[in-house]
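Board notes, transcribed. Complex of a protein with flavin-adenine dinucleotide.
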Amino acid sequence: MGKPTGFQEYNRELPAKKAPEERVKNYNEFVGLYNEEKLNEQSARCMNCGIPFCHSGCPLGNVIPEFNDAVYRHSWEEAYDILSTTNNFPEFTGRICPAPCESACVLGINKPPVAIEEIEKHIIEIAYAKNLVKPSAPFIKTGKKVAVIGSGPAGMAAAAQLSKAGHAVTVYERDDRPGGLLRYGIPDFKLEKWVIDRRVKVMEEDGIVFKCNTEIGKDITLEELQRNNDAVVLAGGSTIPRNLPIPGREFKGVHFAMDFLKQQNKRVGNSAFDTEDILATGKDVVVIGGGDTGSDCVGTSNRHGANSVRQFEVMVQPPQQRTPHMPWPNYPMLLKTTSSHEEGCERHWGVNTKEFLGDENGNLRALKVTDVSWELDVMNRPIKFAEVPGSERELPCQLVFLAMGFVHPQHTGMIEQGGLELDERKNVKAKEGVYRTNVSKVFACGDMRRGQSLVVWAISEGREAARKVDEFLMGHSMLESKDAVS
Ligand code: FAD
């Protein structure tokens, strides 16, 4: 253990962020780094408690007290070894994970939790700076070939692990660059794209081949991949957005969030796009939906120079303090406050949008909304909402982003052609812990299997699925499993 009294001596401190009015001037990341003394203090706050719940709070089973201890001792190589054993991409999770490990931190019962996410980011950035991040594929190969479909965090993690096991891996990606939603969903101000390029370079040095601009089910059939490979891993994400099919949906100015975010990421990355410009500049913007996608629309609209940005959430505001039904200091992620909200956004809770109103030219001019109240069950959980009588009103706006989540993966193309069975939520059916689909040699992981989720879960599923593929190919696997550490 680093410093037994550290948690009493030091308060939680996060690295300085650029002021909101400064950071909205560009799309760069705006969170700084600790100096070495501060990093040392923050790692010293880890209590090395008897039962470290942070292990099980993390979907990857990260061995957090151990790397905190190594950081406290300035033992960078050791810290990096511990962290990279369970997490292939700490540079992603260290930047954008909602850090369920911190919600599980025992210190969090009495004081703010250990700044685990930041410590993780520092370990990997120091490791890159000290040239510790190196290709790790074994010299002796198995002679087996695996195709991975989709280059998001799930596909990348599966590819990295399969390569580590000695298999020849090719990743197929329909977009022009690898990264999935890390590249073309999450804005640069949360994750600059050189971070992905740097990792892809290490993976390529490891022998992993990335074939972009190649859609399976269109350019190559799944059946062809099955024939030419010993196994196939599907990691195509959950890409069909939830719609709001109310009157006026067809007016110009009502967009799915991803059409806006993807275009802006392409603009920043100098990638070509063939869709009409969606610009928030000078407009009154409403974002419908309160999750990560919604807050990324808020941050991007502010960077475009929107006249006003409002965000509507049909749920009511969550309690800001512990209640008998919410004893742990962990609020529902859907309703969290993000750095984008600090940059300027009026949040409206318990609001239902009933109609989009347009002008004679077919352009959106306003929303018709009402306030709602929720009926609660015995556990105080919302089950049904009703309109508040007399609350109907019109709110002027010229641009709306629908950010209400994703319903399932795209079924046309690869899934339909391949005859893949779906589960009751219309995701690719493959049991957690097994990851095999109904189709011979084909496995599935990430959002395509579990439904829309988090980067940390995608990495976790990619790793676990890779282990199952390795067992399938070799009869056993030496790849790490989170079950072994948590
Ligand atoms: P994806 O990242 O979706 O990658 C799937 C890839 O497969 C895509 O590149 C796609 O083009 C490719 N593909 C699909 N079909 C084919 C095919 N037939 N042939 C070839 N390629 C194909 N999570 C967090 O933890 N923190 C956040 O801050 C956060 N912010 C988010 C913001 C937004 C706007 C969105 C939409 C999601 C966010 N998430 C966040 C969720 C997170 O990004 C996803 O859970 C995660 O990326 C899922 O990883 P994946 O690899 O399963 O799929």
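The chain has three domains: 6-129, 145-239+407-485, 243-404. Residues 237 and 448 are 4 Å apart (CA to CA).
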